[in-house]
Structure formats: structure tokens, C-alpha cells
Amino acid sequence: MDKEEKRQREKEKAGNDALYWNRLANEREFEVSNKLLAIASTLIPLFASLEIFNVTLTSDQKSLIILILLFLIASVVTGLIQYHVDRQFFESYQMRNNKIESYYEEFEYDAAQKLINNLKEKDPLKREGNTLAATLQTILFSLALILITILVASLLL
Q1: What is the pLDDT of residue 127?
Q2: What's the total number of domains in the chain?
């Protein structure tokens, strides 16, 4: 395999990686949007029905509503944090790939490879720690849905 084929393969890999990370960030944005829609479509009818039917809430039910709202808000915030982390990673990855491509254009293959290896050693892309926000988002949203179910059951009984 000659140097030009290696360069082309690296370029294709970088493009595929960029598409992957962009898709991941878009999925995160879609997930946050879906959760906001779920919140609105669940809570608005629930609270409206409480007002329409003039339901008197116990202090436990009021506490449950506050807890639900806190979990949902925290879920959305952690989703936005995850979205921001994914976007930052994607932008740094894209900048790095642009720099690598410029090395290939400006230098001979061997010199470019040395610069690229040096760049990867000095500035490794960090991806750790970002799953915490996504995990918290899922847990908080699930807990909120469970509490909504409990609240509805307590209102029906």
C-alpha cells in the first residue's frame, strides 16, 4: 500500500468518525427534545385535569408533584449537559482532523505522519466522564415517570 492510499484511508476514516460523532450529538439533541415533549404531554393534561375536576390534593400528593418536577428538570439539565459535552468533543475532533488534513497537504507523507503522531501524543482526545450525565438523565427521567404513575394511581384511588 503506497503513501497516497494510506493518506486517503486516513481521510476516509476521519470523515466516517466525524459522521459518527455528529450522529451521536444529533441523537442526544433528539432525546432531550423527546423528553421535553413527554414532559409537556404528560404534565399539562395531568395538571389541567386536576384543575378542571377541582381535585383537592393531599400534602403527600403535592410533595410528589414537586419531586416529579425536580426529577424532570434535573433530567433535562443533565441531557443538556450531555449534549454540550458531545458537541465539544465533536468540535475538538473536527478541528483535529482539519489540522491532520492540513499536515498532509503541507508536508510530505513521512513528515506529516511524524507531526500527526506528535499531535496525538501531546493532545489526546478525551472522551471519559461524559456518560455520567447520560446515565443520570435516564435514571432521573425513569424515576419521574414512576412517580407520575404513583401520583395518577393515588388520584384514582
Answers
A1: 60
A2: 1
